[in-house]
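User: I'm new to structure prediction. If I give you an amino acid sequence, what do you actually give back? Let's try with this one:
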Amino acid sequence: MRYAVLVTGPAGSGKSTFCSSLLTHLQTSRRTAHLMNLDPAAESFEYEPSIDIKDLISLEDVMGELGYGPNGGLIYCFEYLLQNMDWLDEELGEFEDDYLIIDCPGQIELYTHHPLLPALVNHLSRVGFRTCAAYLLESQFIEDRYKFFSGVLSAMSAMVNLEIPWINILSKMDLVTGGTDGDDPTAARNGIRRRRDIARYLDPDPFLLASAEESNTSNPRFHMLNQAIVQLIEDHPLVQFLPLNLSDTDSLETVLSHIDHTIQYGEDEEPKEPKDMDEGDFADAMD
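Assistant: Good question. You get back a string of structure tokens that encode the predicted 3D arrangement of the chain. For your 287 residues, that looks like this:
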């Protein structure tokens, strides 16, 4: 069985940093993992990708030769990939029983309504990959409750569009401190939050969050719209978040354990035979 994790989310949510940290953690744990770059505009990586869409097509070439803009060029790159899946099959052919971490672009429309990524996911399933997605939402979204609700809606839309096992992650939690009333509000870039307040966003009760904001709302004209959005989230309670602090190894290990559980990592693996050894293998130990 082969395993793949699509790392998705809006631009600036920390997807590439998460991919690099996850690779480092897996290698430290002596697990085999590989990076696949699915962003045709990416320019630099901490780890060299084992599979890179830019070896097939790049956004720079599309924009230069066809005159497309960034968004149109990105869609063209994905359409071109889907028309050349034999290239991807050849690239994937060498990986068996490995962990493939797929770093996706930050254009949100790819996850919420375009059929391109669902088609790719279906293909991965056909060639024997057990796939899940990790959707990253930056912790700055909890600065404002209705901004947070918009992030929840985007995660929900992506979940419905891709139809695969899913984990939502509130990233960059190292920028949000569990503060007290005496803490300096400038100590954290995304604002100080008490642990109790942060917990409200991890398993959100939308009506509770909305009622807490009601007395401070600055746009009462949008009250009915906000309430309709809150009701939609309440009627479809699909979204929960795991906090991710990349400066904390335990936080990364918790996220990884949830990913492993979601894709049932290792459950179908057979015990591997140890390699044959001869007298030469013991020569160093006998000296």
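You can read the tokens as a compact description of the fold. Here is one thing that stands out. The two ends are 41 Å apart (CA to CA).
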